[in-house]
């Protein structure tokens, strides 16, 4: 298993809670009483398995920060039961996999990043802006850390709804990682997204450089063809 868990947002086969027409969604820290529910949702919506140590760190507030989404308007007496969550971890920027993409003023202290580990919303509550709100909680928390330079995450390359969400939220896709995920013996690519905060900025990402290079080559070819055409017909 990797140093950090690798998260997804996938369809759920679990029994879904009944939902009010206008649910009252609130956010709070994940606590020890959420352990069983947290494990259940991870089992049901993610195609990879997480170790018990990970869940213990989440619910006991070890080195992982977390937010739970709950529906206070539920009519079934489960108004504190998790219907969504996000877990994250603070890492040193210089030790992260995107250290080469982060620019910051070292005189202001050692830079950090917040890495989103897992993000999930049960199916009944999807398309209600809950995932976006959970990410905003992470961004708000990270922005309050003066030396934090960004929030980053991985997403499997075929998860188009999540990719669209991150782009709408101004996350930048900086890398494609080939074979990043191993699921049921099969490798899948991942995109790496970053949201820069607190004055941090990034040099051009490899994807940007690659796309720009292709554009420049095509542009050069087109210009050459155009000039040849003009010269042929006597234009200078």
What topology does this entry show?
Blueprint: E1 25-28, H1 35-45, H2 52-59, E2 65-71, E3 82-92, E4 112-121, H3 130-143, E5 148-156, H4 160-168, E6 172-183, E7 186-196, H5 206-232
Parallel strand pairs: 4-5
Antiparallel strand pairs: 1-2, 2-3, 3-4, 5-7, 6-7
Q: Into how many domains do the coordinates divide?
A: 1
Number of helices: 5
Strand runs, count:
7
What would you call the shape? globular
Give the CATH topology. Answer: Aminopeptidase
Mean pLDDT: 81
Work out the strand percent.
25-35%
CATH class: Alpha Beta
Poorly predicted segments: 9-15, 205-236
Fraction of residues in helix: 25-40%
Can you say what the CATH homologous superfamily is? Gcn5-related N-acetyltransferase (GNAT)
C-alpha Rg (nearest Å): 22 Å
Distance between the termini: 64 Å
Q: How would a crystallographer describe the biggest sheet?
A: 7 strands, mixed
Structural class: alpha+beta
